[in-house]
Amino acid sequence: MASESSSAVSPMTVEELTLAVKWSGKEHTVRVCGDDTVGELKRRICEVTNVLPKRQKLLYPKVGAKLADDSLLLSQIPLKSSFKMTMIGTVEDDIIVDQVESPDIIDDFEIEQDEAVDIKDKEINKEKLRRRIAQHKIVLRNPCREGKKLLVLDIDYTLFDHRSTAENPLELMRPYLHEFLSAAYAAYDIMIWSATSMKWVEVKMKQLGVLDNPNYKITAMLDHMAMITVQSDHYGVFDCKPLGLIWAHFPEFYSPKNTIMFDDLRRNFVMNPQNGLPIKPFRKAHANRSSDDELMKLTQYLFAISDLDDLSVLDHKKWESFDGVSFKKHRYS
Ligand SMILES: [Mg+2]
């Protein structure tokens, strides 16, 4: 039975690899699969060494520069368990978090609805999500609250302009942030999910006063380690934020029906396209600070939809023209 099932799937893609990684005089073991990417391998190494993926240089006999390409599948690289991998890299300094090195702006691509459905339904991507669910723990800062919906928020360009410079980071905060979070908290638990590192997330949220505001609490914070790399026929390999990870860990509280996520990059929604709201990016804070009222308007939207039983039937792309009264009439008459 076992041999039958293992021959039924391609051994090249699902084969598990155990790799020995030498770093800073110590040896670590990481487990990956052939259908993981180099980027995913670096995340696993980050887990055991705390060296951020972007700071890792991997050395391995006979593979040349292949390990520098994060999008390459491990099955395309001749890795053998008899060789050891060496990683060169430094743990991010405890105090200095380099703002300039937060992820580069990569132009977002408009993923067609059909393609998004295709990506989320691909067995290989579902398997990656299952693996992430099994590996990744979400640390709760505050308990989940019965009967609340869930709001998941990106940081960079969503709540904060991380590319501009200012003497005081508060100058780069999106206007109405605290008013928005305070209002949302009445009906939604709030989680923060950034593609950067947890250190950066914590520094940023502390600087903005989000972690000690008396009017709301943050339920949890997630970083790049919670993301998965998905494969798409049209767009190649890229990272996204699968809400299924949260739903699997807290099924009694959160589901596709009561979760909404704001992000300026819509590819981050690709595993759950019905739950994502593409927010207008907040850039050039100094010029736009006096006029940006996106969070104020979104507060009204969150209120308007907060008593609906199923948020996933909405088209969040059209949030600005959402008319709650006629929506309910149309749906429930
Ligand atoms: Mg962003």
UniProtKB/TrEMBL annotation:
Residues 17-88 form the Ubiquitin-like domain. GO terms for cellular component: nucleus. Its main location: nucleus. One of its GO terms (biological process) is regulation of proteasome assembly. GO terms for molecular function: metal ion binding; protein serine/threonine phosphatase activity. CDD domains: Ubl_UBLCP1 (cd01813). This is protein-serine/threonine phosphatase. It comes from Solanum verrucosum. The lineage of its organism: Eukaryota, Viridiplantae, Streptophyta, Embryophyta, Tracheophyta.
